[in-house]
Design brief:
Blueprint lengths: L1 H8 L10 H29 L5 H9 L1 H14 L10 H9 L17
Helix pairs in contact: 1-2, 2-3, 2-4
Length: 113
């Protein structure tokens, strides 16, 4: 949970680096939160016979910028430009790679601290 909150605290920080653990823990907690919201919306939709997807839409809009920011910082950790997130397959592969040891042009190594 601390990794998820760390990303939210760095809401719109697009510079620096993000470890694999920070990125993937954010993805995991984001998935869990979305799943729980879907269950709640399903229950509310069944009770009221309406489409209650407004909770998920609000949540997704709220975490859009932090999601982009942590993805860009993850690209920086692998010593790639943040623009690689718009190339789906390459960006996805880079999220699995270990970060550049030591300092790179995007900042210090977050593993060393």
């Amino acid at each position: 949970m601390k990794w998820y909150l760390k990303v939210l605290k760095n809401y719109a920080v697009f510079n620096g680096r993000a470890r694999r653990k920070e990125y993937w823990m954010f993805v995991l907690f984001n998935f869990i939160a979305g799943f729980l919201l879907a269950i709640i919306e399903g229950i509310l939709g069944g009770i009221t016979n309406t489409d209650q997807s407004v909770l998920t839409i609000i949540y997704q809009l709220a975490i859009l910028i932090p999601s982009i920011a942590v993805s860009i910082r993850r690209m920086h950790d692998t010593n790639h430009s943040g623009w690689w997130i718009i190339v789906p397959i390459a960006g996805f592969i880079f999220t699995f790679l270990d970060g550049t040891p030591g300092e790179n042009k995007y900042g210090y190594d977050p593993k060393s601290r």
